[in-house]
Each structure stands twice: as structure tokens, then as C-alpha cells.
Specification:
single chain, alpha+beta, binds 2-amino-4-trifluoromethylsulfanyl-butyric acid, binds cobalt (II) ion
Length: about 290
């Protein structure tokens, strides 16, 4: 458990909510059904960009700690504990905890889970493909990133999917430049993924991030000319492509969070938060 006789994932047991010290400021949506409408825009001054970079650094280092704890036999709940303790030890709030009712401090998306997997008592085994997504909130701003990791060793096709998804994110970031429309990003990602016949998920996108977790700005990972927002220096958003070894249709579990490929094909994702500069992009979610 929790995998069925075909090795497909099934929902596990979710542990009690982890406490956050009262001294750590919460995002405004915690304890409410959802965030307040955001009206603040996506362009930030230099000091605020540095605050986003600090939140992003904490989130990135939390993923480093998770990566160091990754081994066959560990549960995704234990990885949630590792990240949670790292984030709060650095004076930050784990943004997913209490976001629209999400019960945990990170997302753990395993194998056929595209995104938004809830940490539970699922035990990792050799060859698993695990995405860990961490967002940290400190000094009023969020930094959001994710990485996909392999538990031990996996078949070459799995390794290739991970490497090429990381490369797809790199190419999306390279397409960023002031004066261009945001749709250049998805065009770069989709044309690269198409070389390998990979599916590019459309139902979930990159997003503006900073004072809001999801600002309303949408960054598609596929060729979508109608997303014509023009990038300007100081604009902050994520790019977070999800590629699959099969189709792009998604199913959502009864928990209302866990998103899987309908065909149960493997899927990988990488995410960074970046700021648009005069020359291109500056990644804000580095360790
Ligand atoms: N961090 C995710 C993103 O990249 C959002 C997770 S929201 C949650 O946008 F509620 F599922 F945690
Ligand atoms: Co994101
Ligand atoms: Co994220």
C-alpha cells in the first residue's frame, strides 16, 4: 500500500497538520477558503526582488534537504516533515499549508502524478520518479520552485524524461526577454518536447508570483499565442513545464488535489521563479 496490483498509486493516509511557530507571519489566505483577489501587479522594485530571492533560496535549500533524505523506504510524509522543519527554521511559512485547503507543506507528485500530490504514508521504492514542489513565504513574498528526482536507479527512458524536462525549463527561461510576449516561452518548451514525442500538459501553467502565490498572470508551456502579455523588466513569474511519456489528459483524485495522467504515463516537472531583466531572466530560486 498505497499502490494497487498494477503498481498504480492510490490515496494514502495523511498525517496531522504540522504546526508553524506563532512568530512566523502567515500569508493572508491561511484559515480562509482561498486568497483575496489580487490587484497588485507582477512588476517589482529591486529591493522586493531581493526579498523574493531570499524566499526562493529558502525553498530551494528545503528541496536540497529533501533530496538528501530521498531513499527507498522513506514516506512522502517524512519528506514533508524535512521540508517543513527547514522552512520554519529559516523564519518562513510553507505557502501550500492551508492554501485553498491543501493540508501539507510541500507537494509530492510521484510517477503518474502530474502535480499537487499530497504527502502521505506512501513509501518510495527504487526507480520511483518524485517531484517535490516547495514554496516559501517570508517578508510578505513567495518563492516557488520544484524539481523531479529519481529514487535510486531507473530505466533510461525515465532518466531521459527527467533530463529533457529540466532542459525544457532551461529553454523556456532562455526565451525570456523584455519586449517579448510570454507566449514565446511555451513555444520554446513545446517545440523541444515535440522532438521526443513527449506530451506537454496544458491544464496547469506557470504564474505570476511574489506578493501573491498565484497573481493571475498565466504562463503557458505550450504554443498559445492568445497569452500576449509583454514581458517587462522587474516582472516576476514561474515557468514550470510538465512533460509526459504519453498523453496530456489529466484526472483529479477525489481528494480534489492529486492530478494524474489519465493514461497513467510517467510525468516529470521542473519549476523556477525568475525576474525579467534588461538582458533576459534572473532565476530567483537557487540555493
Ligand atoms: N507550488 C505549486 C505551483 O507551482 C502550487 C501548489 S498549490 C497546492 O504553483 F495547494 F497544491 F499546494
Ligand atoms: Co508555481
Ligand atoms: Co510550485
Amino acid at each position: 500500500m498505497p499502490r494497487d496490483s498494477h503498481g498504480h498509486l492510490t490515496p494514502g493516509r495523511i498525517s496531522a497538520q504540522r504546526p508553524v511557530p506563532a512568530s512566523i507571519p502567515r500569508p493572508e489566505y491561511v484559515g480562509k477558503a482561498g486568497p483575496a483577489p489580487y490587484t497588485g501587479g507582477d512588476v517589482y522594485d529591486a529591493p522586493t526582488v531581493e526579498l523574493i530571492r531570499e524566499s526562493g533560496r529558502i525553498a530551494s535549500q528545503a528541496i536540497d534537504a529533501v533530496q538528501a533524505a530521498l531513499r527507498p523506504g522513506v514516506t512522502t510524509d517524512e519528506l514533508d516533515r524535512v521540508a517543513h522543519e527547514f522552512v520554519v527554521a529559516h523564519g518562513a511559512y510553507p505557502s501550500t499549508l492551508g492554501y485553498r485547503g491543501f493540508p501539507k507543506s510541500i507537494c509530492t507528485s510521484l510517477n503518474e502524478v502530474i502535480c499537487h500530490g499530497i504527502p502521505d504514508d506512501t513509501t518510495l521504492v527504487e526507480g520511483d520518479l518524485l517531484n517535490v514542489d516547495v514554496t516559501a513565504f517570508k517578508d510578505g513574498v513567495h518563492g516557488d520552485l520544484n524539481r523531479t528526482m529519481i529514487v535510486g536507479e531507473a530505466p533510461q527512458a525515465t532518466v531521459d524524461l527527467v533530463d529533457r524536462t529540466r532542459e525544457a525549463l532551461r529553454r523556456g527561461i532562455k526565451a525570456v526577454a523584455p519586449g517579448r510576449q510570454v507566449n514565446v516561452i511555451g513555444r520554446a518548451i513545446e517545440s523541444y518536447a515535440a522532438r521526443f514525442g513527449y506530451g506537454v500538459v496544458r491544464d496547469y501553467t506557470g504564474h505570476g508570483v511574489g506578493r501573491a502565490f498565484h497573481s493571475g498572470l498565466v504562463i503557458p508551456h505550450y504554443d498559445a499565442p492568445q497569452y500576449d502579455d509583454v514581458m517587462t523588466p522587474g516582472m516576476v513569474f514561474t515557468i514550470e513545464p510538465m512533460l509526459t511519456l504519453g498523453g496530456v489528459e489529466a484526472d483529479i483524485w477525489p481528494d480534489d488535489w492529486t492530478v494524474t495522467t489519465r493514461d497513467r504515463s510517467l510525468t516529470a516537472q521542473f519549476e523556477h521563479t525568475l525576474v525579467v531583466t534588461e538582458r533576459g531572466a534572473d532565476v530567483l530560486t537557487l540555493s
